[in-house]
Amino acid sequence: MDDGRIRWVRAKGKVYFDDQGRPTRFIGSVLDITDEKINEQRKNDFIAMVSHELKTPLTSLTAYIQLLLRGSEQAGENLETDILIRANVQTKKMTRMINGFLNLSRLELGKLELSLTAFLMDDLIREAISDITVGMEARNFEFLPGCPAAVTADKEKIGAVIINFLSNAVKYSPNDKKINIACRDGDGEIIVSVTDQGLGIKPEDIPYVFDRFYRVENDKTKDISGFGVGLYLSAEIIKCHHGRIWVESVYGNGSTFYFSLPNLRLTISPLLG
Predict the structure, then answer these.
(1) pLDDT at 273 > cutoff 50
(2) Would you state the pLDDT for residue 36?
(3) Which residues contact 137 (CB under 8 A, 6 or more apart)?
(4) Which of 33, 36, 17 is nearest to 25 (CA)?
(5) Which end of the chain, N or C, is less surrounded by CB atoms within 10 Å?
(6) What does pTM read for this prediction?
(7) Which domain holds residue 54?
(8) Which of 68, 87, 111 is the last residue of a domain?
(9) Residue 270 in domain
(10) What is the total count of domains within the chain?
């Protein structure tokens, strides 16, 4: 259709080349996906707009809660302190979710930026465990540190990846089961892993767990909240750091999620804004 519009197409088939390596013909199918891409862009724009508008009042609400919390602790009001601690936890969860959607929108536009600093991965993991366990019923976290060397990366975004791994381990495993976190210095890379003793993942689902909006759906997971963007965003963050991300799992017997970062000074991907 020659209407002057830019169109998105999806092609599937085989390309034939001549002796000089130049394409000569294509046999397959071509599908116009312009409307699908336009709707996807509208959705991303809406998510970005709503997330941005929610961020300012949520920041103010968090500040008010923390101010009340300090006053309650000083006054020795145990009940009010407990309530405010739980409220503070919920606002932190909302903040992480909104930041995740903003990062997702920036990623889709090719504008996800990294702010590189040097930090100790062991310390970042301890911070993440402390952050996620505030106001939570007792969970058995066991951290095996092993990376005293500094890594150069975006501390906030790598922290978000660790929080995502820990949150999933909490959501998909029983309260009385141990969650193991490890950090070790591998062959030229630092490897972080989070192991749970939860539901596990079926072999046919493993290739898709890092896909955007993908969620494992079955009778055991239908009541577990989530949007299917956390692992996708984590994978993209690690990819931007030139690292690796993967999962090993036995269905019904838990999962181990891994990511690794080069134990070298990192270079920002040219695809980033």
Answers:
(1) no
(2) 76
(3) 175
(4) 17
(5) N
(6) 0.68
(7) 1-111
(8) 111
(9) no
(10) 2
